[in-house]
Design a protein that fits this description.
- The protein is of the alpha/beta class and 226 residues long.
- It contains nine helices and ten strands.
- Strand 5 (102-103) and strand 6 (106-107) form a beta hairpin.
- The longest helix has 16 residues, at 193-208.
- It starts with 5 loop residues before the first strand and ends with a helix.
- The structure holds tricarbonodiimidic diamide (TIU).
- Tricarbonodiimidic diamide is lined by residues 28, 76, 161-162, 165-166.
Length: 226
């Protein structure tokens, strides 16, 4: 059976959304990255650059769920014993407080700690897979690809943080695995405005070398929400 197609305005050209074949992948909307007083802010980052994505993501997720479609969530983090933490990642940045150390919301980027969890506004619902990933990309060392294949998913709408780090890495990994990715400008954020702009340009350049860039309002309209 041919899947139904809804045309979503996007760059570099319209995205042919097949809702039943598409997963909404929300990247790393974790308290330590987004909340005032978290690890991200402790490092001197401006969390307001990320917090502007919360409301658009909340509205999109609500419409996506109302349409009965598959949403998935990722979290960057490590086992409490840190056996999955590459030594290079542990020491990178030469910070005094690094991954696994006690931070403002529990041990930094450790599974089970408060700061590692997803912000309450976007709390995963029962039945929505949560992918715990040790790297920046959501496919590296996770079962995401298997989960998507079992549900015949071939497209991803990608949102979350941060645009040039975990979102870009994940889109590149997905693209190499054969997924079409639509990244939503208003639902992805970077601590650095110039990386937000360039991170999106890199995705849609050269005829959509890694994917498409669109907006949440157009996706919500395409799935009959709003
Ligand atoms: N989720 C994600 O992008 N993790 C990061 O490490 N982001 C930074 O910007 N550091």
């Amino acid at each position: 059976m041919k899947a139904e197609v809804a045309v979503v305005p996007a760059e570099p050209y319209a995205f042919e959304l097949m809702p039943d074949r598409c997963g909404l992948l929300i990247i790393d909307m974790q308290r330590d990255f987004l909340e005032p007083g978290g690890f991200g802010e402790m490092l001197g980052n401006d969390v307001s650059q990320l917090r502007r994505t919360i409301e658009p993501n909340r509205r999109l997720l609500q419409a996506w769920r109302a349409a009965g479609l598959l949403a998935l969530h990722t979290r960057e983090g490590h086992r409490p014993d840190l056996t999955d933490l590459p030594p290079a990642k542990k020491v990178r940045g030469r910070g005094t407080t690094t991954i696994g150390d006690e931070g403002p919301m529990g041990r930094i980027l450790v599974r089970g700690e408060a700061g590692h969890d997803i912000i309450p506004e976007l709390c995963p619902a029962a039945g929505e897979p949560v992918i715990d990933k040790p790297g920046k990309g959501a496919f590296h060392a996770t079962d995401l690809h298997s989960i998507l294949q079992h549900r015949s998913i071939s497209q991803l709408i990608v949102t979350g943080v941060t645009t040039e780090v975990c979102v870009n890495t994940t889109v590149r990994e997905a693209n190499d695995r054969g997924y079409d990715c639509l990244v939503l400008e208003d639902c992805v954020g970077s601590y650095f405005p110039e990386f937000q702009e360039m991170g999106l340009k890199m995705i849609k350049a050269q005829g959509g070398i890694f994917g498409w860039v669109g907006s949440s309002a157009d996706v919500i309209a395409a799935i009959g929400g709003g």
